[in-house]
Design goal:
58% of the residues lie in helices and 0% in strands. It has 189 residues and is mainly alpha-helical. It has one domain: Hypothetical protein af1432. Helix 3 packs antiparallel against helix 4. The protein is globular. It starts with 13 loop residues before the first helix and ends with a helix.
Amino acid sequence: MNTVSFIQMKDGTYEDYALLHDLNRDYHAALPDRILGALKGLDSGLSGYKISRLEHSLQTATRAEQAGASIDWIVGALIHDIGDDLAPANHSQMAASIIRPYVSAEVTWVVNMHGVFQQKYYGHHVGVDPDARDAYRDHKWYDSCDRFCAEWDQTSFDPDYRTKTLAHFEPMLREVFARDEFDPAIVGE
């Protein structure tokens, strides 16, 4: 296996960084495969719901697609809970960090904030503020997050809902994550 010659980055050579650049390019190209694997992992995660977290994610994406949402919104809906396994206290922020380089700032903000906005539906039952989202009332994407949660996310726990498969969404996921990172034409406000 090829490795760099340095033990401190400051001592790296052109050849070292060319090697890392090539390896990094291949690793980045495999990101959709890792995301698909993480989504599949949601099928056996948190229990207690009538459906798995994967099924919830698929339902949310299905609802977004049926509403005529753009590919950015559909993929955002698909991965919005991908952080549940590794970051249960801030799963929204983890998902937003993953998708941020590839989609609009609006989609990123909504994915980032959906955890706070969802508290509206259950906060009063578990001792968290159901109105915490009100702190963002004047934010330009408040209504977008409210709709995301009301129409797609909080409604997607139905075992009888006709949900599209992960294979259906895979081409969309691959398309979004194949984009150049932080393309101003896409991510810019």
